[in-house]
Amino acid sequence: MLESLQIPGLGDSSLLGLLIFWIPFIIIMLYGQRIQMYISLGEISRSLNKLKLMKEKSREEVIDFVSKISQSKENLSEKIDQFLEYFTIQPVNLDPAGIVKKIEHIVNVKDDRMRAEIKQLVSSATDVQTSNIENVIEVASALNYYYKAVRHFYLLGKKTMSYIWIVQLQMILPTILEESNALMKAISAFKQSQPIGDGIGAMVVGKMMIGKEKKTVAKETAMSESEYKGRGLYLIKAEGPGGNVGQPGNAIARMIDEMGIKIDVIIMIDAALKLEGEKTGEIAEGVGAAIGGIGVERFKIEEVASKYNIPLYAIVIKQSIIDAVSAMKKEIAETTDKVIEIVKRAVEEKAKEGDKVAVVGVGNSVGISQ
Amino acid sequence: MSAITGMKKSSKSVVYTIEECASCGLKTKRDFQSGDYVYKEGGGCTKCKGKTMINMIYSEKVEK
Ligand SMILES: [Zn+2]
User: Fold this and answer.
1) Region A47-61: what's the mean pLDDT?
2) What is the number of domains present in chain B?
3) B5 lies in a domain?
4) B11 vs A: CB within 8 A
5) What does DSSP say about strands A265-273 and A312-319: parallel, antiparallel, or unpaired?
6) Which domain does B52 fall in, by range?
7) In 3D, which of A361, A132, A110 has the Cα closest to residue A244?
8) pTM listed for this prediction
9) CA A36 from chain center: how many Å?
10) Judging by DSSP bridges, how do beta strands A265-273 and A356-361 pair with one another?
């Protein structure tokens, strides 16, 4: 009995015991981490291949989409490759005062240049098509960037055999792959101009704007005036059905500063990322500026709200990152009427008769008009 | 593993367009067509000849 429990190689000095126990033990002791790294590198390399396939597929999708609209294939792929490599240099943040203005400027320059070049490439494109092309290119360049960044750290890890690079990369890869899958779905939604989950805010306010006169109050941003139980409503959303996000921050600032409209309450409706375990299409209410993106619009709304002491209320519709960028799910679309009821209730509760309320539907307006 | 991939293949998302009649409230669900967008005026209502409007476009999982 004891005999069989003995660690081989200890009791007897047979060569076999030495081979089957001590040699692997020493190898693992000395090279365990290295072996682990090779396994990790193999896993990363498989994910990298997936990313490469997605990147190539998205590039083809963009070329296919643009060539269908332009009807000419002349140096199209060359131009699109150039688009995909486009970069934006963020302003220096050593002296952060006033940086939002600089970011806004750079983002505007980028947008305008992109649009102008798309128009040049596809002169027959309508505004809706131009927005959709811009969106599709943006998504494809994000995929292109993901691939290149992961490849960079993979090669760096392989070259230096540094545990830190490899393990960090391995840890974030599942998230990157999930986001990349979401982006692939976004391309197909934008190509067909289908509403995406992120557009739920625009869909809610768009419904309230039906049949009302629309004014353009900021770049690609529509506004309608309405009334509910004696309270004046100013409904704001990005102009659809092209894929725009508009400039709700500029719109509100302009309405107050230039148009002389005294806003008493701001209500914002937007899609929000749900936590794992939360249900898609859950509605939550809170305070603050519900708007994502790079931060410029949020900054502007917060600035205006604090300057004039306007309370900011937020209504959000929960969804995952995949839901937000792919064709809108039924559970999300069906919240529209419920959210409108919540908006009406909020208007009644938060504003007195005669008050003016700005209702902002935040989100990408692809496939959603007003 | 094959069970997982097999499951993924059997449920596919389809995008539908929902049109609603303003006068009688009749809702019709059809496949999404290129050119559809939310709040676009649709054709006449099949029941009362009233005006219809697309009020939702959404994707739904269908088991195949
Ligand atoms: Zn009808």
Assistant:
1) 95
2) 1
3) no
4) no
5) parallel
6) 11-63
7) A132
8) 0.86
9) 34
10) parallel
